[in-house]
Specification:
Length: about 425
């Protein structure tokens, strides 16, 4: 979401678009690799969770982008942005589509936290945080899910209690991407348990280096450590770090979830890279391109990825026009999860037994695709499960009635929990 709400077609046309695109391409040529030059390795540079080397590269890239006046294009110049128009952002997005941008570890910080700070932050909060976020000096994460409230975010139990000019935060979050390298986070906590679950929540800015914050990486089946548990034990948060209004956190959470679903379903990250070219090449290399089952799986994948690409274009156009992402983000996100599973199945059909066992150190393509297949199921959970997305689409797109809730309107503290 940008702040240039008054920008119109006349202003967008008041600059030399060709010159701007040339500037962008010259910058990318000096700092990035073209996708065509990376032998099909389309996703690694945009992986949302990176190791220390990936984080350093992302920060260096973002700093160079800021120095060139190309970071935070539509954010106000007084807060560290470029102060340009939505048209500039659209042109940058198009120009960079063919490049491998090393900004993956910043995807949540920029794709979710930055627009929330810009949209709901006070002038003081923006002055304190936007410039460092845009430049990549400070990296942010979002903290929603809890062990007892995964898909039902509104059922969370982390508690924030007011104490003079501070709030005291206690509780636990889980599956927090990138928390182990982040400096700040946006956390949703319960501030009034006497209200219904959607009404007693508030959102806070939290310093992840503050006393009482503990981050514990979670080791995944692939060996990756991108997700984390985050524990809050009497963490004191200045009252000035409340984002939005007290007990209005659900409205902010919904906005943030929309940004997340758009990022997952229609963003530029590795989850949205087209996989069929690599799989077609793999099938040819292994002599499986004549197998009718493999050919049908690849054809279905090509069609699905093309359709998803058009949905993504529509969403990005809406965001560029200043509209808050809506249920179309759920459509893109659900489609991405389905395609991830189709990609997994096609890869395993091509690889056969070699996709399940190989000589250590000689896994090659099999090991790469096996890691992808292991992680594919997680796409159906991140940003809201497939079932949640189907409910949103059914209710907000198709107009179907909501599922019955016997505790609707009841105080959160009176609702039974396991």
């Amino acid at each position: 979401m940008d702040s240039q709400t008054s920008t119109g077609a006349d202003e967008a046309a008041a600059f030399d678009e060709d010159a701007f695109v040339a500037t962008v391409e010259a910058f990318l040529d000096a700092h990035c690799d073209r996708i065509d030059d990376t032998d099909g390795e389309r996703s690694e540079g945009r992986d949302p969770v990176g190791d220390d080397g990936a984080l350093a590269a992302a920060r260096s890239f973002q700093a160079a982008l800021a120095d060139a006046g190309l970071a935070g294009l539509t954010y106000p110049a007084e807060y560290g942005g470029a102060g340009l128009t939505r048209r500039h952002q659209e042109l940058f997005t198009r120009a960079s589509a063919g490049w491998r941008l090393p900004d993956g570890p910043l995807s949540i910080s920029h794709g979710m936290c930055l627009p929330m700070l810009n949209q709901y932050g006070t002038p003081e909060q923006k002055a304190a945080h936007l410039a460092d976020n845009i430049r990549g000096t400070h990296v942010w994460c979002q903290m929603f899910s809890e062990p007892g409230a995964g898909s039902d975010v509104a059922g969370l139990s982390s508690r924030a209690v007011r104490d003079g000019d501070e709030w005291i935060l206690d509780g636990q979050k889980v599956w927090t991407s990138g928390a182990h390298y982040c400096d700040h986070g946006l956390v949703v906590a319960r501030t009034d348990p006497s209200l219904p679950k959607h009404q007693g929540l508030s959102m806070f800015i939290v310093d992840l280096h503050a006393p009482g914050v503990e981050v514990r990486p979670l080791v995944q089946i692939s060996g990756a450590r991108g997700f984390n548990e985050v524990f809050f034990d009497g963490v004191r948060i200045p009252a000035t770090d409340l984002l939005g209004e007290v007990n209005q956190g659900w409205n902010l959470a919904v906005s943030m979830l929309m940004f997340e679903r758009v990022s997952i379903g229609a963003g530029g990250g590795g989850l949205n890279a087209k996989r069929h070219p690599d799989l077609i090449r793999l099938a040819r290399d292994l002599g499986r391109d004549g197998d009718p089952v493999v050919r049908q799986a690849l054809a279905d994948l090509v069609i699905g990825e093309e359709i998803k690409g058009y949905v993504g274009q529509r969403i990005r156009a809406a965001v560029a026009a200043g509209r808050v992402p809506g249920p179309e983000g759920s459509i893109a996100k659900l489609t991405g999860a389905v395609l991830a599973r189709r990609t997994r199945d096609a890869a395993m059909a091509i690889l056969g037994a070699s996709g399940q066992a190989w000589t250590p150190g000689r896994g090659g393509e099999a090991e790469k695709w096996s890691n992808f297949c292991i992680s594919a199921a997680g796409v159906s959970i991140a940003g809201g499960t497939d079932e949640v997305q189907r409910n949103i689409i059914g209710e907000r797109v198709l107009g179907l009635p909501k599922e019955p809730d016997p505790y609707k309107g009841a105080a959160w503290q009176d609702v039974p929990r396991s």
